[in-house]
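Need the bound structure for zinc ion, inputs here:
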Amino acid sequence: MSKKFPPGVATGNLVMNIFKYAKKNCIAIPAINITGFNMINAIIETAAEINVPVIIQISNLGAAFNIGKGLNNKNQYSSILGSIYTAKYIHQVSKAYRVTVILHTDHCNNEKILWIKKLLKENKKHFKLFNKTLFSSHMLDFSNEPIKNNIKMCKYYFSLMNEMNMTLEVEIGITGGEEEGINNMKINYDKFYTKPKEVAYVYNNLKKISSNFIIAATFGNVHGVYKSHFINLKPKILYKSQKYINKKFNIKQKKPVFFVFHGGSGSNLKKLKESIKYGVVKINLDTDMQYYFTCGVRNYMEYKKKFLKNQIGNPKGKNKPNKKYYSPRIWLRKGEKEFKINLKKIFKKFKY
Ligand SMILES: [Zn+2]
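Answer from helper R.:
Posting the output first, comments after.
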C-alpha cells in the first residue's frame, strides 16, 4: 500500500476511501484483534516502519481485559470502559507514530448491544469535541437472526452511525469455530455459505442509508485454527455475489461490494488471495497473532531459563543479579518483536 493517508485514527469518508484504494489495487488490510497495549504498540510500530494503514479491532472481551480483569463486566461495564480508554490510547499513539489506523470494534450480537449503544454515545461526545468520532467503524453481528431481522436491526444502528458518517460492518451467514465463548461448531452446514441473493439484499438495503458499509459474507470461514477444517473455503461465492449485484441492479462498477474475511488465521494462502481478487478489503486475524506474541515470550523464557529462576545467581556467577533478564520490559518486548516480524510477512501476503 504505497499511497499515504493522513495519520491518526481515520474517520468519516476517509475510512471507505482507504477501502476503495485497497479494492482498486487488490490489497486487503489486516485487521488485528488486540490483547493488551503491547500488541497495539507492536501493530503501530510495524505499520510505521513499512508505511501502511492498518486496522486495529477491539473485541468485547479484549476491551474488558484491557481495563483489567478485576472489574465486573455486568451490563458491559468493563467492555465499555475498556473500549473507550483503549481507543483514546490508540488515537494518541497512531498520531505519535504517524500511522493511519482504522479503529474498529469486532462482533457485537444482540446480547451485547448495550456495548455499542454506549460507544455510539462516546462517538457523539468525541465528535462534538474534536470533529471526529472515537471509532472509525463498528461491526454488528446479528447473523443468528433471519436475514430480514438482521438487516432491519442493522439499519436502525446504521442510521445513528450515519449521522456521524461512520462505517458499518455487518455479517451474513455464520462463521464457524469458536470465539469469545460463542461456539458455532455444530451449525447447519448451509449457514456457513452465504448466497449471492442474500448479499444483494443486504447491499440494496444498506445502500439506502449510506454507502459506508462493508459486508462479512461467509464462504466457509472459521474462527480459530484447527487440525483440519471441517468446512471448505469457497471464495467463488464472493465473485458470484458481485456479478449477481451487477446484473440485478444494473451497476456498471466492477466489484460493487466491499467484503470482509473473518477467521483469516490458519487459512490457505491461495484462497485468501483469491478472495482479495473478488473484493475482500479487510482480513481479520486474531488467533495467529496471539500465537506469534506468545512464541516470542516462550522462546525467550526457554532460552534464558537459568537466568529466570532466582533474583540472584545465574550461569555467569552465583552472585550475579538477574533483573535485566526477568524485567517484563525485556520479555514482553520479545513478544512484540516476534509479533512484528510475522505481521510484516502478512502485509506482504495480503495482495492478489
Ligand atoms: Zn469474526
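Comments: The chain is about 45% helix and 15% strand. Residues 328-349 form the longest helix (22 residues).
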